[in-house]
Amino acid sequence: VHTLRLILGDQLNAHHSWFRQQDDGVLYLIAELKQETGYVRHHIQKLCAFFAAMKGFADALEAAGHRVRHLTLDDSAQYEDLPALIRAQLQESGAQRFEYQRPDEYRLLAQLSDLDLPVAVRQVDSEHFLLPFDEIDAHFERGKAHRMEPFYRKMRVRFNLLMADGKPLGGQWNYDKENRHRLREVDWASVPEPLCFANSVDDILARLERHQVTSIGTLEGPLLWPVSRAQARELLGHFCRHCLVHFGRFQDALSNQAPHHWSLFHARLSFALNTKMLHPLEVMEAAIDAYQENDDVDLAQIEGFVRQILGWREYIRGIYWANMPGYEQHNHFDARRPLPPWFWSGETRMACLKDAIDQSLQYAYAHHIQRLMITGTFALLFGADPDEVDAWYLGIYIDAIEWVELPNTRGMSQYGDGGLLASKPYAASGNYINKMSDYCASCHYEVGEKVGERACPFNSLYWHFMERHREQLANNPRVGVVYRNWDNRGDEERDAVLERAQWCLDHAEKL
Ligand code: FAD
Ligand code: SF4
To answer: Which residues form the signal peptide (predicted)?
Structure first.
């Protein structure tokens, strides 16, 4: 062996140029590591999905003629951390070169960059993202506010996706206005049954137990997430056939009544993408092909989907790298409260939060608008410490890796970065949730009330938040206007609302 090449758990890219040639002198190392199971408390399905996908990738590489060393937790327990493992493997194999793909997380990049090894070291690109790493600085400046839309338009032109003669297909860049529908009962029949796999992970579960890895959430029966490229491709095909047709239309819809309401028309491809089993271009191209072949899929649906991957996903990564390290410390509103305990149990009488948290515990998944406007907005209004909020999101979701979790959580949902990523905080009262969901009809609380024991907590917390942060928000042109409405109410009414909010803040565990 002359070269040892490291493959991290989110680098399962079968099309990486590394694998174009077989070379018996190259040893690929894929290892389950205790340090990766413990930097945050992960969902049990997330632990199993990563380990199963890593094992599958190791087997596939071996079958393709490469030399692979796959280490389980049992094999790697003797090494304190990743650097210790690498040193030992270099020694054991006799390799004179060490190569790795640049990690997408700052934490791992720092660990690998700091390695002081007695052999030649080479870092290569992970060949996954569309915007080359070296170009991030040209688009994103540290500490400066950016907006997604101009970035997205540049990417559309650059990659020539949904373009015609240099102009956006259909003449518009954005179809968001047509895409904000509530899901009504008449639409229920069109909600597709989600494609769930049945991967056996008993051996992984036994290992996690043996090594006393603590986790959150549940796993009943086999693992439903895709853990191989073949399964990931199958899920992509399922999305193109059954979900794309209404993807944009219902992407902001929320329900606890509709069939399959935990997944609706969402792709659930984030795990396959973030582990790099799928390439973003391949995903978008498959969806665009489906749009072209199927008259039922209109432009607003495919544009909405391309926007998420070509726009948001790449934009989020740009914000992350332009601002790391340091982004993880922003706390614009100086929020310090611990999250209420029901974030880990779902035991709350608020129907919206119960639904979002229950399904997160059950599936390690919630769709975007649940993450943003239910758990996220609650944490924002409540004044939850962004460190806690980050740890919760980073642990619970199947797709949570810091480069994508942190800007979405601390930036987009908590406005902790003071507007580097988004133009305003996603603060909203129960009215928004009621407009987009069927939650409120089955809730213990009254969405139309602001005061009293049964008043929807979002309503009073919203005004408490706005009052608390008047100084930071009143000058924001997208937010300031709401103060006029609030200030026009009598003192008595305002005091009663703030009093109800204070009760909610002081008794959050009872909500
Ligand atoms: P769909 O709704 O079907 O969208 C398709 C794809 O678009 C997704 O698979 C994803 O790759 C991409 N996408 C859409 N929105 C975003 C976004 N805002 N940022 C990045 N990619 C996006 N996404 C993660 O991958 N990991 C996270 O840890 C994560 N944490 C989040 C935390 C908060 C508070 C919020 C508001 C959003 C977070 N997101 C995260 C973004 C988004 O919610 C998920 O990507 C999406 O819900 C994944 O489900 P899906 O594959 O069904 O997505
Ligand atoms: Fe959520 Fe309020 Fe509606 Fe209940 S009434 S579901 S707490 S928004």
So the answer is: none
